[in-house]
Amino acid sequence: MSGLRHVQVPLGDRSYEVVVGHGAAEFLGTVIPPSAKRAALVTQPGIPLDAETELELERFEIGVGERAKTLDTVGELCRGFARMGMTRHDVVVGVGGGMVTDVAGFAAASYHRGVPVVHVATTLLGMVDAAIGGKTGVNLPEGKNLVGAFWQPSGVICDLDALDTLPDREMRCGLGEMAKYHFLTGDDLLAMDLTDRIARCVEIKADVVASDEREGGRRALLNYGHTLAHALEVATEHRLAHGEAVAIGLIFAAHLANVMGRIPVERVDEHFAVVGEEYQLATDIPTGLHADDLIELMRRDKKALTGLTFVLDGPEGVEVVAGVDEAPVRDALARML
């Protein structure tokens, strides 16, 4: 089929293919492990794409929204896998957005200490980020994605047909993550059509994952904008969606880098140009939130090994900066609150 892009995530004997483009779902059978006998399809009500496979299939629907992204949901899925008699010669197929692929991937990583999983991403956020790279997880009341596992899929399908009916808010969520890649590489993503733009985001992430699969160093750069974003999601009880929060987090990170003397104000303006003007995303922290609460939530971030830790722009590009003093963080927040 013309117009499809095939991107490899190079991880040695665990390498896998990501198929991007309209009609990509037809290639699902090519990324399912040949040893698989049956499939457990994990999805949600109303997902606008069916996963067709010749395998015997049992369907599991999980709840919608971050409140369903819990250990209880993973436990219910694993009990369902046990009832169907799933073995390591079967496969989990996650069909949906980032929440589905995170939960399906963690359930697959946990059941029998690991069964194969394939992701069929149906949202822009899932295609450019969540379904790629093997990070899985669920939330706790204390924070987002605090429990999870690294479990690489056997393949990923990004069928752009699913985006035709994607609600505007879900599209904005994907654009929030896509904006991040502008600042990681400097690529002119806006000059590309959507298929090539998504494929380029996948290539960037695949390159980072291949060099640092378990986030020991370089992979943390993919969390650009995420430290405040995760705090905002928790503080708003997930009324602010992930990609929306990342967009605001990118602006905050730019302000913080400027306060710390890492970047000039012109670079902050570039962040506003991409996030606010080109992608038409909100760039303000929602009203009613307080600096003390946001700082406490940011201290719980998974990257915070040595005090407050952020991914920040600078003279050498985006990098992880640990042990950031509270004063510049408060200054950057004050610009936005």
Helix and strand arrangement:
Elements: E1 5-9, E2 16-21, H1 28-31, E3 38-43, E4 56-61, H2 71-83, E5 91-96, H3 98-110, E6 117-121, H4 124-130, E7 135-140, E8 143-150, E9 155-159, H5 168-185, H6 194-211, H7 226-235, H8 242-259, H9 265-278, H10 291-299, E10 308-312, E11 319-324, H11 326-336
Parallel strand pairs: 2-9, 3-4, 3-5, 5-6, 6-9
Antiparallel strand pairs: 1-2, 7-8, 10-11
Description:
The protein has 337 residues and is of the alpha/beta class. It has two domains: 5-179, 3-Layer(aba) Sandwich (Rossmann fold); 224-336, Up-down Bundle (Dehydroquinate synthase-like, alpha domain), CATH 1.20.1090.10. 40% of the residues lie in helices and 19% in strands. It has a seven-stranded mixed beta sheet with strand order 1-2-9-6-5-3-4, covered by helices on one side. Strands 7-8 form a two-stranded antiparallel ribbon. The radius of gyration is 19 Å and the shape is globular.
